Amino acid sequence: MDYVALRRLQNAYADIVTRREWAELEDIFLPDVRLTLDRRTLEPLVLEGPRPIGEFIGAAIAGLDFFEFVVLNTRIHLRHNGDDDRAVARMYMNELRHDRASGQWTTVYGVYHDVHRRVGGRWWFAERRYHTLARTGHALDTFAFPAGDLW
Question: pLDDT by residue (tens digit) across 90-147?
Fold first, then answer.
């Protein structure tokens, strides 16, 4: 049941950021949550609290007219260090993005290393570390569906 609850928490995050409903981060992040962003090309950025995290993400994707956060895979370890109310997780993700101004499609791939705590009978994000793994920067090429299929 804990595993399912934590997967639902990860899915809630994906849904919240895709819909850009930053106030809902307070429903899944503890008030003292810390997010460390390893953007690879800049110094790591540390944000604390649901509101500053939502404001940062919101500003970062404001110029996108399409944005979708997708959970690709996840691994969850329950009872971290013997604590029934602590879990750690690794979540692989990508962001599908379309820039309104340039018309360019990009995809970002990354991984979150998360610490979850059960407080008040439910699971929360307590700490997150994000690492960018890859980014596309080229225009999207599209092709017609191939002719001559067998059906």
Answer: 999 999 999 999 999 999 988 999 999 999 999 999 999 998 888 887 655 545 655 5
Is residue 51 situated within a structural domain?
yes
Residue 150 located in a structural domain: no
Alpha carbon distance 109, 1 (integer Å): 29
Query: How many domains, in total, are found in the chain?
Result: 1
Count of residues making up the chain: 151
Could you tell me if residue 148 is inside a domain? no
Sheet order of strands, 45-48 included: 45-48, 29-38, 122-135, 105-119, 86-99, 64-77
Average pLDDT, stretch 40-66? 94
pTM of the model: 0.88
Residue 13 forms part of a structural domain: yes
Nearest residue to 122 via CA among 13, 14, 4, 33: 4
Q: What range does the domain containing 29 cover?
A: 2-135
Q: How far apart are the C-alpha atoms of 129 and 31, rounded to whole Å?
A: 16
DSSP 8-class letter at 78: -
> Residue 141, CB half-sphere, CA atoms under 13 Å: how many?
2
Measure Cα distances from 86 to 63, 90, 124 in Å.
37, 14, 10
CATH code: domain of residue 119: 3.10.450.50
